[in-house]
Predict the structure.
Amino acid sequence: MPSRLEGQETAALLINGARDRITTPEAAESSAQFLRQVLRGPVRLEIFPDRGAEMLRGEAESRCLMEFLSDHLHGVGRKGSEEAMRKMGAEPVSFAEDGSGLVMQVSDRFLDQMD
């Protein structure tokens, strides 16, 4: 296993299908338990009941991955700090429902820069 810097934590996300014949849910849980013993960060296991060994598909599976990435991007994302956002030159965004789906609203300054 590769070495890590002292104090650095590593998060892991395992996604498995309950119908996967090669990596069974029991094997996925065993892998998650092992990672919990050796990593300093959180280990999340998601087992989707109606999937096998195929790639991610659908909203629930995509949301699982995106939430994990957002939670563990070290300074940005849902749990990001204002300081990190300022360093990146990022501006807050808000989301609104327009009846046809989720719409991202950005600042006028951002739109002016796009012109």
Remarks:
- The chain has four helices and four strands.
- The mean pLDDT is 77.
- The radius of gyration is 19 Å.
- The first strand starts at residue 12 and ends at 17.
